[in-house]
Amino acid sequence: MNVVLLGSGTGSNAETILRAEKNGDLGDASIKAVFSDNENAGIMDHASHYGKPARFLSAGPFKTKLDGESETAWIKEIEFYEPQLVVLAGFMRVLKPPFLQAFQKRIINLHPSLLPSFPGLNGIRQAFDYGVKVTGCTVHWVNEIVDGGAVIDQAAVRVQNDDNLQALEAKVHEAEHRLLPEVVRRLSIGEIPFPR
Amino acid sequence: MNVVLLGSGTGSNAETILRAEKNGDLGDASIKAVFSDNENAGIMDHASHYGKPARFLSAGPFKTKLDGESETAWIKEIEFYEPQLVVLAGFMRVLKPPFLQAFQKRIINLHPSLLPSFPGLNGIRQAFDYGVKVTGCTVHWVNEIVDGGAVIDQAAVRVQNDDNLQALEAKVHEAEHRLLPEVVRRLSIGEIPFPR
């Protein structure tokens, strides 16, 4: 199963996938390339470290989406790798219909809350501020509703009374680092079905 | 800590509290009475079985709230027991400001989902239909927003692929039966603070 990763940030989740592949823990998944809208993102260093093409692509003038021209370029460049799976690992832009249609039913996203609670930005902070005692993370299929696609898997994290935001963030990230590579592995061996 | 229980249904959650008290597992909590808006509710049988006053009170003509006259009666009858804590254990009516003010910061409710996901009716079915992989239950302080008060504690339940709705309901109820008496116990010994 050909996989490409898209990310904007430090790439700690992308790294867990790359490491899982290196360790033989990613089933039949094969990471073909890593794409970022941020030339200096840590995810680019991880890609290089694991010997993968690290592709920076401009996203255009908008902050939270790709502009039309960039979108066409992204689709074309990603299609080159013939991915069966596109993994959003900290990719901070909302993807629009042309992109979603190009990779229909092949895009998954990792979100740092137990959806449908706390969609959108800052899921961990939202949960912390609400005062929940259980939060976690979600891997879901991506559709046109932000963080609204079908849930693939989730992991729960207990909030302890003495957790500050930083402690909670660390716990949720730890859960993410277990959940995401495991979902990729299970998709690659057919243990989790793709949508029809 | 004087406690009264309010319920409309089978009373399985009320029973776990009554049993915990009998077994010496309810800290400094003392159940003074059980109130129901349903004369034939199972919760009434449980109250009698454990030697507690089982008080049926008419709720008036509405289906989802108390009418004004009934509300006055409920407040008066409950106040007779001088409760430090009012526990809603499957009580199916929305409580309005006069009631909430009478027992301000002393009312807790059990809800069968990980709030803020799936508030309102049929929390377990809502979660099942959404397709979450983690759900659970919540005990929260009651305010004027239905299922919107501050979270006290939550318990997570894993949804397995082969769980049907009935299996999931059984698991969530099991989690409820652990969570609710434990919250009452911890409140009674000051391990969980009351709101100021």
Main features:
35% helix; Rossmann fold; alpha/beta; 196 residues; 6 helices; 7-stranded mixed β-sheet; 7 strands; homodimer
Can you characterise this structure?
Two copies of one chain form a homodimer. Chain A has a seven-stranded mixed beta sheet. With 196 residues, chain A is an alpha/beta fold. Chain A contains six helices and seven strands. Chain A has helices at 12-22, 42-49, 68-79, 97-102, 123-130, 165-188; strands at residues 2-7, 30-36, 54-56, 85-88, 107-111, 134-141, 151-158. The two termini of chain A are 17 Å apart. Chain A has a single domain (2-188), classed as Formyl transferase, N-terminal domain (Rossmann fold), CATH 3.40.50. The radius of gyration of chain A is 16 Å and the shape is globular. Chain A binds chain B through residues 114-118, 130-134, 136, 150-156, 158, and chain B through 114-118, 130-134, 136, 150-156, 158.
Concise structural overview:
With 196 residues, chain A is α/β, with parallel strands linked by helices. Helices cover 35% and strands 21% of the residues of chain A.
SSE inventory with pairings:
The structure is a homodimer of 196-residue chains.
Chain A: E1 2-7, H1 12-22, E2 30-36, H2 42-49, E3 54-56, H3 68-79, E4 85-88, H4 97-102, E5 107-111, H5 123-130, E6 134-141, E7 151-158, H6 165-188
Q: Please indicate the percent range of residues of chain A in DSSP E strands (runs of 2 or more).
A: 15-25%
Count of extended strands of chain A: 7
The N- to C-terminal Cα distance of chain A equals 17 Å
Low-pLDDT segments of chain A = none
- Radius of gyration of chain A over all CA atoms, rounded: 16 Å
Structural domain count of chain A: 1
The assigned CATH architecture of chain A is 3-Layer(aba) Sandwich
Structural class of chain A: alpha/beta
